[in-house]
Amino acid sequence: MRIIRSRTELATLVAQWRNAGETIGFVPTMGSLHNGHLTLVNALDGQATRRIVSIFVNPIQFDNAADFQLYPRGLEADAALLEGTGKVAVLYAPDGAEMYPEGFATRITVSGLDGMLCGADRPGHFDGVATVVTKLLLQTGADIAAFGEKDYQQLCLIRRLVQDLNLPVRIKPVPTVREADGLALSSRNRRLTPQQREQAPYLPAALRACIADIQAGKAVDACLQSCRENLKSHGFNVHYLDLRSGDTLLTTETLTPDARLFVAASLGDIRLIDNMAAA
Ligand code: AMP
């Protein structure tokens, strides 16, 4: 596995691959890798002849400077994990100046999808995501790129972006990977205190209970309200808990076949997100 930090070095290699008829699979990440990320790498088995994983903690998608500073980092351990898969040709780890040289002034906005759920909660976040993902897709020349359903809104936004800008890449969605206790794997979980780590699985458990209530025919509004209160009483600060269409992300008051339950809730200053199919 090669570790590449420069755009031009990556471009040279990608051009060689193209000439040799290779196909390129890509997994963008912010590092602090866990089994969820490795599942994305595995999801590209048989889909591409070369795989690139990027690690870049993207400053322009953080709406909070402290959150950016505190985001867990560990390139050496990450490189060892990726090497261990035997599947990754390149770890691309550009620095901030490589991605955003002086004078950088462009932002990509995916209208509509960026203003709801996490977008309403974190102003500018999705412009940052859309901008960096567009750059990375162009830099890597990816034929296929894997994204986790854990960040479901992000996945919808990337699909829209790829379609709207006619980017020649296929988007491969990957179901959320969870701990044995149900908590969705996330780099941010490393920042939970032992006590918060014990509380955290209540989040997916509450989602499952809420979905069971909705499926049993109880009024959606009442189910959501009681789930919010439950989460609050278990120490969560609930940013949103919504039933929405998994296609349009618009709220729904009935259990449509594509309905999903979406949540963002914090324990202390750690913000956790999750979502599940409800039908
Ligand atoms: P991140 O490093 O958190 O920006 O995530 C990089 C990619 O990994 C995104 O496509 C995420 O949706 C995906 N991902 C993160 N956690 C999980 C998980 N628990 N299950 C599946 N995919 C995940």
Automatic annotation (TrEMBL):
The keyword Transferase does not apply. It is found in: Cytoplasm. Catalyzes the condensation of pantoate with beta-alanine in an ATP-dependent reaction via a pantoyl-adenylate intermediate. The gene is panC. One of its GO terms (molecular function) is pantoate-beta-alanine ligase activity. The active site is at H37. The reaction proceeds by a bi uni uni bi ping pong mechanism. This is Pantothenate synthetase. Beta-alanine binds at Q61. Keywords: ATP-binding, Cytoplasm, Ligase, Nucleotide-binding, Pantothenate biosynthesis. Its EC number is 6.3.2.1. (R)-pantoate binds at Q61, Q154. ATP binds at residues 30-37, 148-151, 177, 185-188. One of its GO terms (biological process) is pantothenate biosynthetic process. Homodimer. The keyword tRNA processing does not apply. It catalyses: (R)-pantoate + beta-alanine + ATP = (R)-pantothenate + AMP + diphosphate + H(+). It is an enzyme of class 6 (ligase). Gene3D superfamilies: HUPs (3.40.50.620), Pantoate-beta-alanine ligase, C-terminal domain (3.30.1300.10). One of its GO terms (cellular component) is cytosol. Belongs to the pantothenate synthetase family. It comes from Acetobacter fabarum. It holds the Pfam family Pantoate_ligase.
